[in-house]
Write a structure and sequence with these properties.
The structure holds two protein chains of two kinds.
Chain A lengths: L2 H16 L4 H8 L9 E11 L2 E8 L11 E8 L2 E8 L11 E6 L5 H9 L5 E4 L15 E7 L3 H10 L4 E8 L8 H9 L4 E6 H4 L7 H4 L7 E5 L2 H13 L6 E4 L12 E5 L4 E5 L5 H7 L17 E11 L5 E3 L5 E3 L3 E9 L2
Parallel strand pairs in A: 7-8, 7-10, 8-9, 10-11, 12-17
Antiparallel strand pairs in A: 1-2, 1-6, 2-5, 3-4, 3-6, 12-13, 14-15, 14-16, 14-17
Chain B lengths: L11 H21 L2 H25 L5 H27 L24 H14 L30 H10 L1 H9 L2 H4 L2 H4 L2 H28 L4 H27 L17 H11 L7 H6 L6 H6 L8 H14 L9 H14 L12 H9 L1
Helix pairs in contact in B: 1-11, 1-14, 2-3, 3-10, 4-6, 5-6, 9-10, 10-15
Classes of the chains: A alpha/beta, B mainly alpha.
Bound molecules: FE2/S2 (inorganic) cluster (FES).
Chain lengths: ~350, ~375
């Protein structure tokens, strides 16, 4: 018998011993970061960056596959006992020796997860992780000239790139309200001092918003540069128009913090017929959340549309897939994933 | 439907007001649920798992009597924790709000021969909706006992103290059979239904796994301690079964608990539903350890009012609920475990015999009872 076959036999035996649990349920108690466990990470330190931003150092579990500079990771954090998932750019370089990664989080007003991570989390806390994802990354072949255009916490994926890969000719334009709001300001100025970066800070509290039409005044050769832009919607929309207007859109790479959600045919009255509850829902809230808020027993798993742990019959009405905008109408046998579907008019969910 | 309705003094408005007051108690807990509660259930789960693991470890040496005693005691407690404070409550969805897929009613499986999925249906949906409604809530006597004077007596009932005792010893199997509605489904026509067969197969699989673990694999791993380990697991299962059966009997069977007629629940309002839960359940008084070991089903009344509130909150809720019982002059049936168990068994014995001739009741007597 091969050793893998032997191991799988041994594992089967172990499963019989632990039934109805799995061996991993016990192993998680002692070694939550081991290979083969669900991917998690342990927060090892939290360093303040600015008044409302902090860098969180995470030791990922053994199953972590490693990231490419510029990618983000989805993090599941327990806030007030409830697990909430958010995506954050990875700010550490890919070759960090100690195997840890960092994310840098800016606390946004009323942001449950961001405020928790910046102000309240403590070293030792376990968080859930997904594998890194996102195609806002540097190309394998080095471009001759690079422009980074960022605003606010849009600097975070770019910081991951700057720390990872050096280029001969890099310009960065970064917008933040005031100098003290610039995340990584010391490090950026250090790069400038070492002549590894040319940096223009736009302080919007005093200088006003960056007018993209006048980008040429700051970076005359912007159109020749391979550009990575990350920041609020308004900035990215303007950048896309500007680059397209000059016929160089293929040089522009953008990263939006939130995937754009289609919101037409807004919400409606949702009936959870098995429970006999009826509530109003908007067109952007997943029916899973709507149900949970209303106290309905909702099955769930990944909460992001991949595990089908949340599928539920749609008995009447229509729902919209929040990822694609696709409408699904009730028919016998139609199942929907409540975690990625919102009400598109009145509907009846069999829960 | 007992001869004297202990809620007769309440007006319809009072009952609705009572419902609103109970809703307010519920909302308060929900608004306050948070980190501490999550930490509580995580802790309980981790303690249970460690205790079970350690006890099974000790039982590998159960050929030595002290190891047998310690291991058996530990395993019994671990199994009780698994079924009561953890399994029952997780499967009620009490912890779903944490959104942790590992502590969620849809993913949880317990150390019990009835698959979680089937139990949730018969328990959460049927029993909790139709609590104590004769003919609808099969938890009333589990279909094998007569638990109210108004149920027709049959010579079969003479044996019910014995059935009840056997049911206590093999309670998990009783529950599995009950979840399958075995009595009803074994009739010829139904036996064939693919739906029933699938469910029966699922139970079969679960039983096989459970038995294999407890009575084959674990004893085999113990080598020379094979027989003693087998005896230990059998004992632990017996202890757990008798314990859970006793606790559950205390929830709805003691004297003073009301049962209801089918037609009384037609078009029930929220207030009336609450009132039925209040009158149809009974508590067990005792120490914190007692509450914990019963999975907080010692707060059966509170549990039936709010089946999906986290169990660790029932104790604080109980104070407010009890105040409402007093305010509305209702009887809060509670007592120490031995008293309640005795009361429930007494009823089982009493109702195994046909009703005695009803005494002629004077209006005075009726008055007295209502006032009490
Ligand atoms: S929860 Fe995983 S697909 Fe919806």
């Amino acid at each position: 018998m091969t050793s893998t076959a032997l191991r799988s036999r041994a594992w089967k035996l172990l499963e019989m011993v632990t039934t109805p649990l799995l061996p991993s349920d016990y192993l998680d108690l002692v070694s939550p970061l081991r290979a083969g466990a669900d991917l998690r990470g342990r927060i090892e330190a939290v360093h303040p960056e600015t008044g409302d931003a902090a860098t969180v150092v995470i030791r990922p579990g053994r199953g972590w596959r490693g990231h490419t500079a510029g990618q983000y990771v989805r993090v599941g954090v327990d806030v007030d006992g409830r697990r909430l998932w958010r995506a954050y750019s990875i700010t550490s370089p890919t070759d960090r020796q100690d195997g840890r990664i960092t994310i840098t989080v800016k606390a946004i007003p009323d942001g449950k997860v961001s405020n928790h991570l910046v102000h309240r989390t403590t070293p030792g806390t376990l968080v859930q992780l997904d594998q890194p994802a996102g195609d806002f990354v540097l190309p394998p072949a080095k471009p001759a000239k690079v422009l980074y255009l960022t605003a606010g916490s849009g600097v975070t994926p770019v910081m991951g790139m700057l720390r990872d890969t050096g280029f001969d000719d890099v310009v960065m334009v970064h917008c933040a309200p005031r100098p003290q709001d610039v995340i990584f300001r010391n490090e950026l100025h250090g790069l400038v001092a070492d002549e590894k970066l040319r940096l223009t800070e736009v302080h919007t509290a005093t200088d006003g918003r960056l007018d993209i039409a006048r980008l040429g005044e700051l970076v005359p050769d912007w159109a020749e540069r391979e550009t990575w832009a990350c920041g609020p919607e308004g900035l990215l929309d303007a950048a896309e128009r500007h680059w397209a207007g000059h016929g160089v859109q293929e040089r522009l790479h953008t990263e939006r913090f939130r995937p754009r959600v289609v919101v037409t045919g807004d919400g409606g009255e949702v009936t959870f017929s098995a429970t006999g509850r009826t509530v109003d829902a908007d067109g952007a809230t997943p029916l899973l959340d709507v149900g949970e808020e209303a106290g309905v027993l909702m099955p769930s798993g990944c909460r992001m549309g991949i595990c089908f742990g949340c599928v539920t019959p749609l008995k009447a009405g229509a729902v919209r897939d929040l990822r694609t905008g696709e409408i699904t109408e009730a028919e016998p046998g139609v199942l929907i994933q409540t975690c990625v579907s919102a009400a598109a008019g009145p509907c009846d969910i069999e829960r | 439907m007992t001869a004297i309705d202990p809620t007769a003094h309440l007006t319809a408005e009072q009952i609705e007001e009572l419902g609103r007051e109970l809703d307010a108690i519920r909302d308060e807990v929900i608004a306050d649920r948070g980190e501490k509660d999550a930490a509580y259930i995580r802790k309980v789960i981790s303690v249970q798992r460690k205790l079970e693991l350690a006890s099974r470890g000790v039982l590998l040496f159960s050929i030595f009597p002290p190891a047998w005693l310690i291991g058996t005691a530990g395993l019994s407690v671990a199994k009780i924790m698994d079924n009561m404070e953890i399994g029952h409550n997780v499967l009620h969805g009490q912890w779903d709000w944490m959104r942790d897929p590992k502590i969620h009613s849809t993913t949880w499986e317990w150390d019990h021969v009835s698959p979680a999925e089937q139990w949730k249906h018969s328990h959460n949906e049927l029993h909790h909706t139709y609590t104590n409604v004769i003919g609808k809530d099969n938890d009333l006597g589990y279909g094998i006992m007569r638990v109210d004077e108004d149920q027709r007596w049959h010579p079969f009932h003479l044996g019910q103290p014995l059935w009840n005792f056997l049911n206590a010893c093999f309670f998990e199997y009783g529950i599995a059979a009950y979840d399958l509605e075995l009595g009803k489904n074994l009739q010829k026509r139904r036996r064939r239904s693919p739906e029933f067969r699938a469910r029966a197969r699922a139970v079969g699989r679960k039983i096989r796994k459970q038995v294999l673990k407890d009575y084959v694999i674990h004893p085999l791993l113990s080598g020379p301690s094979f027989l003693t380990t087998l005896a230990a697991t059998f004992t632990a299962n017996l202890v757990r079964n008798i314990w859970t059966h006793s606790v559950i009997m205390c929830g709805h069977f003691p004297e003073g608990v009301q049962v209801f007629e089918r037609r009384s629940v037609k078009g029930e309002t929220r207030g009336q539903w609450y009132l039925r839960q209040m009158m149809g359940s009974a508590n067990i008084s005792g120490s914190r350890a007692m509450h914990f070991m019963t999975g907080n089903l010692s707060h059966q009344i509170e549990h039936h009012l709010f089946p999906d509130l986290p169990s660790n909150r029932y104790a604080e809720v109980a104070v407010k609920v009890r105040a409402l019982f007093e305010k509305y002059e209702l009887e809060y049936v509670t007592g120490p475990l031995p008293k309640q168990v005795f009361s429930a068994w007494h009823k089982v014995f009493r109702l195994s015999l046909p009703n005695r001739k009803p005494k002629v009741k004077t209006p005075d007597h009726r008055q007295e009872l209502v006032a009490a």
